[in-house]
Design a protein that fits this description.
The chain has about 350 residues and is an alpha/beta fold. The protein is about 60% helix and about 15% strand.
């Protein structure tokens, strides 16, 4: 191997080690600070509970503590931040994953061995940054909050991405089509993909495209904007999607057809074909997608891959058209609405209830 190429390979190996080390240091710092805030919150809450006039005593405690910590450690310990830290402990101390070890602490002496066990448990539970938890504390429903925690850690969401997924009601959209056991699973394991239906959302929220809600754009413009914001679109699609191509041509009997967007889902090991439709969904649209799916299954799919999935994204659809066009045992073709502006909670709820 030439010296120049050898040096480049060595540099890449060393650079990768350094990058991994930096990321590990950052994760350790984030984890340590989060655990420290949790413990500070515990001390504050336990001291408040010992106060005679809890509300008044609590205010005075936070004010005095803020002044002393700021003098000793500098910025970061304002009364508002201490209120967040206090709320952080109150929010998470009742979590089933932490309750057992916290209860043990009340009934036995705090040994070095116990401290180590406790720290290990907290590290395994608090895997996100403090900024993530500040946002997550706004979510009152514990099941919903836990879902976003799991998904943030699993997908390495930034706080901005987490906020976007929450604002577009990802949990609600996924939970609506599930029974009680399915909703519980979301809160315990996050989104688990085992069959085609698991990757489908209805509606899809495409507010990042910057398009108006009315029919003032063409299907080609919609497709172009999706390609321009492909990273955002992949985030909205969810787990395991990779982009294959746009306007993929298939030909038979001297006739040419083009599929708007082709993706591959690595988890399901399936091609995912997407057709974009402006306006109302027609039965011909579903029939066309069925043809595309059949073609991919017979001509493109490998032996170790699963059946192709087809999604028609439309502005409006009749559930009756979908029901009577597709076979009863359909597990491959789906029709979902899309919204190009972020709907209000009320509008989103109405969309889901009218499915």
């Amino acid at each position: 191997m030439p010296d120049g190429l050898q040096n480049k390979v060595i540099f890449q190996q060393v650079a990768e080690l350094l990058q991994n080390a930096r990321q590990q240091v950052l994760r350790t710092i984030n984890s340590t600070m989060t655990i420290t805030y949790f413990e500070i919150g515990r001390i504050i809450v336990e001291e408040e509970q010992n106060g005679k006039d809890r509300a008044e005593y609590g205010k005075r405690l936070l004010k005095d503590l803020s002044q002393q910590l700021t003098k000793e450690f500098g910025k970061g310990f304002s009364i508002r931040n201490l209120e967040f830290i206090r709320k952080f402990y109150l929010t998470y101390s009742n979590s089933e994953s932490l309750t057992r070890i916290l209860e043990i602490q009340k009934t036995q002496s705090v040994t070095a061995e116990f401290k180590a066990e406790k720290t290990k448990s907290l590290i395994s539970f608090f895997k996100l940054t403090w900024t993530h938890y500040i946002f997550l504390m706004r979510i009152d429903d514990e099941k919903e909050r836990r879902f976003y925690e799991i998904e943030s850690e699993k997908n390495n969401w930034s706080v901005r991405e987490l906020k976007r997924q929450y604002d577009t009601a990802l949990y609600t959209r996924l939970a609506f089509s599930r029974d009680k056991e399915g909703v519980l699973e979301l809160s315990q394991r996050g989104q688990i993909i085992e069959k085609p239906k698991d990757i489908i959302k209805d509606p899809y929220i495409l507010e990042f495209l910057g398009l108006p809600e009315l029919n003032q754009y063409s299907e080609s413009q919609l497709e172009e904007e999706i390609i321009n914001k492909l990273e955002h679109f992949l985030l909205e699609l969810g787990h395991g999607f990779t982009f294959v191509g746009r306007q993929q041509r298939i030909t038979f009997d001297d006739k040419h057809f083009r599929i708007d967007l082709v993706f591959y889902n690595r988890i399901l090991k399936s091609f995912v074909l997407i057709d974009l439709k402006i306006g109302e969904l027609k039965h011909q649209d579903l029939g066309q997608m069925q043809m595309y799916v059949n073609y991919y299954d017979r001509e493109m799919r490998l032996e170790d891959e699963n059946k192709t999935i087809g999604i028609v994204l439309c502005q409006n659809k009749s559930e009756a058209v979908v029901k009577y066009t597709l076979p009863e045992n359909n597990e491959q073709i789906f029709a979902s609405k899309y919204k190009t502006v972020l709907p209000s909670v009320e509008v989103l709820k109405e969309l889901l209830e009218n499915k």
